[in-house]
C-alpha cells in the first residue's frame, strides 16, 4: 500500500512548488529514489494535465562516469540534457543517496568537468532561469545515520519538514523581507569568536517558501561584495564534494577570506582557491523552518535550520547578485540557538534576533511555535 505521505509530498511538488498547468511538460529527474514516489509524481502531473518526462540516475553510476569519463563525453551529455531542459516548463529534481560520500574519491578536477559542462550549461544556463523548478532530498538510511536518528523517526521528521504549511511561512516572511530591503549594516555575533559585519544596502531580498527547494524556509540576499569584515566560526558540519568539514573559521578583510581553518584546512583552502570569486561571499541567509533544529550534513536541510544563518563563499545567485562569480557556492551554517552557543543579529544597530528567536513584534510570527 502506498504511504499517504508520499502522495502528500508529491502533491506539494506538483501543485504548489511547480504549479503545473494544463499542457505543460515537466521533467522529473529521479536519482536513487523509490519508483513509487516517481510514479506518484507522474500520476499527479498527468492529473494536472501536464506531460511528464522522466530521467532516472544514480550517484554510483555518476561516480563511475566522473572517474572514467572525458570532457568530450560530458559535453555530449550536456547537449542531450540541454535539449530536453529547453523543451520543458517545469522540473523536479528528487535526489536520494545511499552513500553521501559516494563522490569523495573523485578528484576535484574531474568533478569540475561535470560542473563546467552539464551543471553550468543545463542547470545554471537553462533550468534555473527558464523553468519552474524544485529540488529535494529523498530520505534514506544514510541520512538517518547522519541525523543520528532511527529510520522511522527520521522519516517522520522528513515528512514533517517537507510538507509543512509553506503558504503560512510565506506570509510570515514578508515583514522580514521588507526589513532586509531597508537595512544597510548587518552585525552577526555568535559562539566562540564570531563577530562579523557587512552591508546589504540596495541588495535584492528573496523569500524561499517551498517554490524552489523542499525542504524550504529561508530569506536570502547577498552582502555588498567588499563590505565584509570580521570573523565567523561555523558550528555545523558541512560536506563539500564528498568530504566532511567541521569547525570552519573564516576571517574576512574588505570582503575577502584572508584566513580559513577547519578540520581539513588543506582541502578547505583548496576549494577556496578554485578561482578568485571563491574567497568572496555570494549569499547571506536566515533559516526559518521550525522542523529543522539541528545539522545533519545535508545542506538542503541544514541551511533551513530555525535560528540559523548561512554565509556562503562563492557565486551569488542571479536573483540577488552582488557581482561575485565563481565555480563554487558553498553554504556554511552557523546555528545561534542556546544549545549551540546562542548569538545575535542586528540590523542597523537594532537587535532583531537573539539566541535564534525574533524579538521584534513584526517578526514574531516567524518563531518556531508560530509556524508549526
TrEMBL record:
Coiled coil: none annotated. It comes from the Bacteria. Its cofactor is Co(2+); Mg(2+); Zn(2+). GO terms for biological process: proteolysis. Signal peptide: none annotated. One of its GO terms (molecular function) is aminopeptidase activity. InterPro entries: M29_Exopeptidase, M29_N-terminal, Peptidase_M29. Pfam families: Peptidase_M29. Belongs to the peptidase M29 family. This is Aminopeptidase.
